[in-house]
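Support request from a user on the community tier.

User writes: "When I paste my structure tokens into the form, the page sometimes reloads and wipes my input. The last time it worked, I copied everything first. Here is what I submitted, just in case something in the input itself triggers the reload:"
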């Protein structure tokens, strides 16, 4: 069981962005993708999630051996794929609790008992150091950076997908928030979830040991290794012995 990306090439408005990406994410694994701005990291995340802006010109995306390259984003979500949003929208009048209950019902196809769901939601929120009153707030309205990221972790805990693509989840976090996010990711991993962790930063990897680190540049994976590769990037930047693997 895995999320597989095979020889994926992607274009936007006839401009090629990704060039022959190969990637495997197994259950219970953390795959880290690093790279400078404009290297194609977010394009990869959005393409896997099914954003219509991105055109797959070659290759395929397999979710547990099923080809999902052309299916709609909501069907991908129902099949167990989760993509975090870098920017959570602000929606007045929609509470976090109602948003999460609706999302869970939509993805799972199950009828939800509101009282039972809310009780379970409160317990999951406490694990992430979120006050139960947080669940009464309007979605995204007046959120700090740390609150937005913890909401992503709460979504992950509630929806319990098979695989999660986390795009810049650690961006702008202080040490305490970083630890909480890392704990949320590790809990998901321990439950058997597979993670694609897209990041600019090395700090989150002080709390999570990745199975593999890939470096992207100009739409290609140019180097792969363990955590030591991320350590080298932290020390020397993205110009360290980057030999094209193609």
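"...and here is what came back when it finally went through:"
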């Amino acid at each position: 069981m895995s999320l597989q990306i095979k020889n994926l090439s992607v274009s936007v408005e006839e401009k090629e962005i990704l060039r022959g990406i190969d990637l495997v994410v197994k259950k219970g694994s953390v795959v880290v993708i690093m790279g400078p701005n404009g290297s194609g990291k977010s394009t990869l995340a959005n393409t896997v999630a099914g954003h219509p802006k991105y055109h797959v010109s070659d290759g395929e995306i397999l979710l547990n051996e099923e080809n999902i390259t052309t299916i709609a984003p909501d069907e991908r979500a129902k099949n167990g794929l989760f993509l975090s949003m870098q920017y959570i929208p602000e929606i007045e009048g929609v509470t976090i609790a109602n948003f999460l209950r609706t999302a869970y019902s939509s993805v799972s196809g199950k009828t939800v008992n509101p009282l039972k769901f809310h009780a379970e939601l409160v317990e999951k929120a406490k694990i992430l150091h979120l006050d139960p009153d947080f669940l009464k707030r309007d979605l995204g309205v007046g959120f700090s950076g740390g609150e937005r990221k913890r909401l992503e972790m709460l979504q992950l805990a509630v929806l319990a997908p098979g695989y999660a693509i986390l795009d810049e989840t650690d961006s702008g976090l202080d040490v305490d928030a970083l630890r909480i996010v890392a704990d949320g990711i590790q809990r998901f991993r321990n439950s058997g979830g597979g993670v694609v962790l897209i990041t600019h930063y090395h700090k989150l990897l002080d709390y999570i040991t990745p199975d593999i680190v890939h470096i992207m540049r100009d739409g290609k994976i140019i180097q792969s290794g363990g955590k030591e590769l991320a350590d080298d990037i932290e020390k020397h930047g993205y110009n360290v012995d980057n030999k094209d693997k193609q």
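Agent notes: The reload is a front-end session timeout and is unrelated to the input. The chain is about 35% helix and 30% strand. The domain at 2-89+161-236 is CATH 3.40.50.300 (Rossmann fold). Escalated to web team.
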